[in-house]
């Protein structure tokens, strides 16, 4: 098994590749409740004068038909407002879900690590009247299955203030894990970037910690493949 490689410099084209893979997976599973343009699928049925089950049965015995259909009914990337970080998580999950690890996106307010070491839901933050500056950035993703944990994810290219903030947040996150992180959990820092010096500095400082793994979407998939595809 090899990691899926995404060129984040050409994000829309690459997002379409992922959409096509997701549509293909839905076709093979005969589950058209998500990841497809159902109206386009219905148009195809009308054009071919064929039933849903007849077409899906053809796809099960003909891989080429399934791939052509997935390209036709996949969600159009140019009409999506999804974030690049969503694609990072989705890409990794396509790989890890094949061997029992689920990586799911969390909402911006789902789970937040606090500066005093607790991980709280958003309603708990409000109930306890905890100030936002007493919380770190919310986790972007959750890991469950053969291993449990959390992911912070970011795509960052080029120099500038925002880019500096990304790495500052990553250092803060890793320091929090060092001090408070559950040793039985895995904490992943996923950054796809061309700022190699800053990225390598982060990895050198924290990748030696047993429950932290820092990498881009490719090396993180490889980490899971090497350690959990058994």
Provide a descriptive summary of the structure in words.
The structure is a single chain. The chain is an alpha/beta fold. It has helices spanning 11-29, 38-48, 52-61, 63-73, 84-96, 122-127, 161-180, 196-206, 217-228, and strands at 101-105, 111-113, 119-121, 141-145, 149-156, 186-193, 212-215. The strands form two sheets. The protein has a five-stranded mixed sheet, with helices on both faces. 28% of the residues are buried.
In short:
The chain has two domains: 8-79, no CATH class; 84-228, Trna Endonuclease, Chain: A, domain 1 (3-Layer(aba) Sandwich).
Q: Could you list some keywords that capture this structure?
A:
230 residues, alpha/beta, 2 domains, five-stranded mixed sheet, two-stranded antiparallel ribbon, 9 helices, 7 strands
What's the helix and strand layout?
Blueprint: H1 11-29, H2 38-48, H3 52-61, H4 63-73, H5 84-96, E1 101-105, E2 111-113, E3 119-121, H6 122-127, E4 141-145, E5 149-156, H7 161-180, E6 186-193, H8 196-206, E7 212-215, H9 217-228
Parallel strand pairs: 5-6, 6-7
Antiparallel strand pairs: 1-4, 2-3, 4-5
CATH class of the largest domain: Alpha Beta
User: Count the helices. How many?
Assistant: 9
Domains (count): 2
Strand residues, percent: 15-25%
Question: What is the chains' assembly state?
Answer: single chain
Number of strands: 7
Mean pLDDT: 89
User: Which structural class should the secondary elements be placed in?
Assistant: alpha/beta
Radius of gyration: 20 Å
Could you spell the SSE succession in H and E letters?
A: HHHHHEEEHEEHEHEH
